[in-house]
Amino acid sequence: MEETWQYTVVSRDDEKEQRARKRLLGFGFHLIGYFIVMAGIFLVNQSQGTDPTKFIILLVGWGSVLALHAAFVMGLFSVFSDRNK
Fold first, then answer.
1. Is the pTM of this model over 0.85?
2. Does position 83 have pLDDT exceeding 60, yes or no?
3. Predicted confidence band at 37 (pLDDT cuts at 50, 70, 90)?
4. Distance (Å, rounded) from C-alpha 84 to C-alpha 22?
5. I want to staple 76 with a disulfide (CB 3.0 to 4.6 A). Which of 21, 36, 70, 71 is the partner?
């Protein structure tokens, strides 16, 4: 029995698209995790009746990192990358 091998040629555009999909999926998990954790912290904070300052600091701190992740996924940092050349 003769084996035949098939090779698929992956173009540079396909590789870019795959990387973009992977970045978008990672951002989606990051966003979902952010909302789940913040909802949990909010509920704990409300049930204990503590000062919301720590919650606000966590909300803004993680939110700013999430915003940077969103900017990376959208390609706003591609200006600094040599991959485009």
1. no
2. no
3. very high
4. 18
5. 71
